[in-house]
Amino acid sequence: MNSRPSTLPLMMADLLRIEPLASARVLHLAGPTRTVAQVILAETFDRLRRTPPHSLVVLHAEAATGGWSLAAALHLAWERNFAGVVVTSGVAGASSAALADRLNMSLLLTDSDPVDVALQLAGQISAPAATRALRQALCAERLTEQTSIRGVLSVLNKELGSTPVALVAGDAVLAGRASAIVERPDVAQVTVAVNGPGEPWARLVAGVPVNASVAGPHGALLKLARPSLLAAWAQTRLDWATHAAQEAAAFGLLRRLAVDARTPSISQPEVEIEAPSWSTDLGWQVDGANRAVWIAPMRSAGPPPAELTHLVRMAWQKGRPTWPLIAEDDGWISWQSGSNPTGTAPLRRALNSFAESAGSYQLAVGVGRAHNGVPGLLRSVAEARLAAHVARQGGRQDVQWFDQVGAPAALAWLPTIEIAKVADLCLSDLMAAHDRVALVDTALAVMDCGGSLVEASHRLGVHRNTVLARILRAKQLGLVFDDPTQRLALHVLCYALASLREPAPPVQ
């Protein structure tokens, strides 16, 4: 691999990022990728006529008197294909900018002495490797000043001008310009991996025009951004972790306030609780009608991992950045608060924008009813959790509203795993049978249908005689559910066994 510095001619983009042109005012830029072969200090029009193409011309003396002279110089620059024209600020006006735009000729205004500007530019053109190194050093300095991922990408996109840059994880654009990952025949993608702790985290992608120098500064500048990106990413994770801990502690205090104010009798009305002042500091609204949302993994065995919490928080707060998301037990809590208890439009919009992420991360979502104040919020949280558990028990990834659940929500709290273990002890013959799944499903359908074989056969999609045969075989194996003293227990056992099985895939 050739590690020698590039001696290719500099482009206008290289010169515009360092002094003296970094502070120049750009009236028109024909193209940042135009190469600059040399710098000419032109005092007369005769010198302009003898200037070779691809030169950057600094006008001085007779050639920079303004008015007709600048217009003539721009026409000569267009005829001889100059890289651009630099002139002092007092010479050019609105008509000069319009002419430069019409001729598509770069026109730059400087407040410095033209001779000094020309000398500095000539030195930069004569040492392209040193100039590029200076540009990269200045870019690295700007990158280190950034404290956010968005800020780092903003510096890169400004540094590379018309070349879009994006930070990509998988197929998702985390920051930057999405046009960078669009495949086009006139664009070549330059990619640099951004490694997190121990494994790749994301990648930086620049969409470089094919007529630009792909071997130029793009890859080097992307590599320069990696430390700043990782620092910003780590700071973001730390900030989110700190904020999440504060929210969890604050919600615990809300719960404690409600518990301490709870009345001893369920028949007595709830005691009103004034929302604490620190809830406003967190951006929470709890005084109005609160409708809670509970989000939980479809298959949960305890608190979700921190990585999943991070992803869910990003997805949820993308649509509603001011809404809380508090990790608790096996899921996450959020809520909508407002003066209108029936106004669910903002919540439905948030749920719609979250639907794709819920499907990707295999999440169940439950929504509680609207209740007032802090006690109402905690009541709605309990309802939302029940609704989410109902959705999870049924293998449903759509949103489950508590209003639509009703009494069957109680079944979501059944310890189905422990109950199913009991079946191995008290129904050992049934559990050893090869056709136990069909027998359990049939017995559950019959009990759900109040003992009607006809209704159960319709529900199962089989003949009544098949249902009868399965019931007789289940009784032989110990599932005698027509005994009133055993019916409730056997009904719960069958429900637990059926709910633990993976839902059948949909028919295509």
Task: Describe, in plain words, how this protein is organized in 3D.
Helix 6 packs parallel to helix 8 (217-261), helix 7 (149-160) runs antiparallel to helix 8 (217-261) and helix 10 (306-319) runs antiparallel to helix 11 (345-360). The chain has 18 helices and 16 strands. The two termini are 53 Å apart. The chain has helices at residues 12-16, 45-49, 68-79, 94-103, 114-126, 128-144, 149-160, 217-261, 277-281, 306-319, 345-360, 373-393, 416-426, 428-432, 436-448, 453-460, 464-476, 484-499, and strands at 10-11, 25-28, 35-36, 38-42, 55-59, 84-88, 107-110, 165-169, 172-176, 187-195, 200-209, 289-297, 326-328, 331-338, 363-372, 399-401. The longest helix is centred in the middle third of the chain and has 45 residues, at 217-261. It has 4 domains: 10-129, Udp-n-acetylmuramoylalanyl-d-glutamate--2,6- Diaminopimelate Ligase, Chain: A, domain 1, CATH 3.40.1390; 146-234, no CATH class; 262-412, Alpha-Beta Plaits (2-Layer Sandwich); 415-499. With 508 residues, the protein is α/β, with parallel strands linked by helices. The strands form 4 sheets. Strands 2-7-6-5-4 form a 5-stranded mixed sheet, sandwiched between helices. Strands 13-14-12-15-16 form a 5-stranded mixed sheet. Strand 15 (363-372), helix 12 and strand 16 form a beta-alpha-beta unit. The model is unreliable at 264-269 and 503-508 (pLDDT under 50).
